[in-house]
Design brief:
The protein is α+β, with helices and mostly antiparallel strands and 146 residues long. The chain has helices spanning 2-26, 65-78, 130-144; strands at residues 36-41, 46-51, 54-58, 82-88, 92-98, 107-115, 118-126. Helix content is 37%, strand content 34%.
């Protein structure tokens, strides 16, 4: 029994040493997908939170989902995207756009839903890219005049 008890602490020490040796290689930064950042956008301004690879915001009252999705579609066309999927109803909308080959990402996914008095919008760039998601939001807000 005695040798087996000594093997467990030795194994734990070896695992701990391996983890400590890899820390300088990977740095001490937080994992981008887990951190949360917040910023103001548009002329109004509107608060948007980026977390888990998605940008979430709530637009001010007075805009319908149909209007928001039409502006979103126009903005993405102007930026060189190809619309792969689009669905719109008074309760919500979804738009998936493929990026052109010159862009460093593959897809833009935008969903909207009506909650409370405003439209809630989520922008997801695949692979995750916060700056690009914020640029898309700024472009949509400019098209809506917000």
């Amino acid at each position: 029994m005695r040798p087996r008890l000594l093997a467990i602490p030795t194994l734990l020490f070896a695992i701990g040493a391996a983890v400590l040796l890899t820390l300088p290689l990977s740095g001490c930064q937080s994992v981008p997908a887990l951190r949360e950042t917040r910023a103001w956008h548009g002329q109004t301004p509107i608060y948007a939170t980026y977390r888990f690879g998605r940008l979430h915001t709530e637009l001010p009252p007075g805009h319908s989902i149909e209007t928001v999705m039409a502006a979103t579609r126009a903005v993405l066309y102007r930026q060189g995207h190809t619309i792969e999927e689009a669905s719109v109803s008074p309760q919500g909308g979804r738009l998936v756009a493929l990026a052109s080959r010159q862009l460093p990402y593959d897809k833009v996914k935008i969903t909207t839903s009506f909650e409370g008095s405003g439209v809630v919008m989520t922008i997801n760039i695949d692979p995750a890219e916060e700056n690009r998601a914020r640029i898309v939001l700024e472009s949509i807000l400019a098209a809506l005049g917000i």
